[in-house]
UniProtKB/TrEMBL annotation:
<dbReference type="Pfam" id="PF00294">
    <property type="entry name" value="PfkB"/>
</dbReference>
<keyword id="KW-0418">Kinase</keyword>
<comment type="similarity">
    <text>Belongs to the carbohydrate kinase PfkB family.</text>
</comment>
<dbReference type="InterPro" id="IPR029056">
    <property type="entry name" value="Ribokinase-like"/>
</dbReference>
<dbReference type="InterPro" id="IPR011611">
    <property type="entry name" value="PfkB_dom"/>
</dbReference>
<dbReference type="InterPro" id="IPR052700">
    <property type="entry name" value="Carb_kinase_PfkB-like"/>
</dbReference>
<keyword id="KW-0808">Transferase</keyword>
<protein>
    <submittedName>
        <fullName>2-keto-3-deoxygluconate kinase</fullName>
    </submittedName>
</protein>
<feature type="domain" description="Carbohydrate kinase PfkB">
    <location>
        <begin position="3"/>
        <end position="299"/>
    </location>
</feature>
<dbReference type="GO" id="GO:0016301">
    <property type="term" value="F:kinase activity"/>
</dbReference>
Length: 330
């Protein structure tokens, strides 16, 4: 099974020792991004993965490519242009202090400036079964929007399975007007088969009425011919944090049991969930098992440093089978 992701590769700078930026001079550097995180996880589950993106044509781009290879992602579809790579700083959270992300300018990255016509999408899709597109491309530049649209359209035409993640980030859309963003999402959704998002994406961004979930998802998936709609959410019970997921198919919502969270680093939780769902669908597990696996993968990812999950299927099953009670493997 060959999976391709399209999206921005970013450098993440994490302040070491759980300090805040102001307190520290030390940063840890990793290569991340929605596509990277998803593919890293899928590569560790045993699938062939590659990413279609643009890296700067300099040592920074080479460093990112080396990190991608280390995560098990093929470098075959990487393009090298321009000078800049997007980046962000992370201050880890603790107790009352939330984890915090500060983006650097992403709009002048090599990826953000690449013209849609300069990609050879036809060639990139050869031998590919599943294409994943990150919704952040709709928020960045005219070029990334056009590229995401063109790829979605072509992949759909070529009968590839198209996955799309809303990935709506308020902080990246302060300059974008609601109606404009709504139109952008409305134009890509008709090409999507598997969609990741939340109820809020449908009611808040696409202006559907806030009604019962089954009716809402039925209407929405019917309007855009979406085969699978899945997402995760956080809940709080008796002062504890839990993570749970849903999956909608045809006329039914499946819900996972909530799993308790003990967070070390929560960035990448959505991508870990999505890779778990894609795995369940590829393996043709039933939807309840698929959700259990996806939630477990994400709970493990949130108990680990960095965005890109590196758990094997066995690691995830071990966590499920031991009900999370095993805290030493030797
Ligand atoms: O911020 C961005 O734009 C990125 O692409 C970097 C992050 O790795 C993903 O966003 C993680 O996404 P979640 O799984 O939703 O936490």
């Amino acid at each position: 099974m060959n999976i391709l992701a399209f999206g921005e590769v970013l450098i993440r700078f994490t302040v070491t020792d759980k300090m805040m930026l102001e307190q520290s001079d030390n940063l840890n550097m990793t290569t991340v991004g929605t596509g990277v995180n998803l593919l890293s996880s899928l590569a560790h589950f045993g699938y062939n993965t590659s990413i279609l993106t643009v890296l700067p044509d300099n040592p920074l781009g080479k460093k990112a490519a080396a990190d991608l290879r280390k995560l098990g992602i093929s470098d075959r579809r990487l393009l090298y242009r321009g000078k800049n790579i997007g980046s962000f700083f992370v201050e880890l959270g603790q107790g009352a202090r939330p984890e915090r992300v500060t983006y650097q300018d992403r709009l002048s990255s090599a990826f953000s400036l690449m013209n849609a016509d300069d990609y050879d999408f036809e060639k990139a899709l050869v031998g590919i079964d599943i294409v994943h597109i990150c919704g952040i491309s709709l928020s960045l530049t005219r070029q990334t929007r056009r590229a995401a649209m063109k790829l979605a359209e072509l992949a759909h035409e070529r009968n590839k399975v198209v996955c799309f993640d809303f990935n709506y980030r308020f902080s990246l859309n302060e300059q974008n007007n609601h109606e404009v963003m709504k139109k952008r999402y409305q134009s890509i959704l008709p090409y999507v088969d598997i969609l990741f998002g939340s109820k809020r994406d449908i009611t808040g961004l696409l202006d559907y009425p806030n009604i019962d979930e089954t009716k809402l998802y039925e209407q929405f998936c019917h309007d855009y011919q979406i085969n699978i709609f899945a997402g995760s959410k956080r809940t709080f019970i008796d002062g504890k944090k839990f993570f749970e997921g849903f999956l909608f198919h045809h006329d039914k919502v499946y819900n996972s049991a909530p799993r308790e969270l003990n967070i070390l680093d929560r960035i990448g939780s959505g991508d870990a969930f999505a890779s778990g769902v894609i795995t369940g669908l590829l393996e043709k597990w039933d939807f309840n098992d698929t959700l259990e696996f996806a939630i477990a993968n994400s709970v493990l990812a949130q108990a680990s440093m960095n965005d890109s999950p590196i758990f094997s299927k066995e690691d995830v099953f071990h966590y499920i089978d031991s009900e999370g009670k095993n805290d030493l493997i030797r």
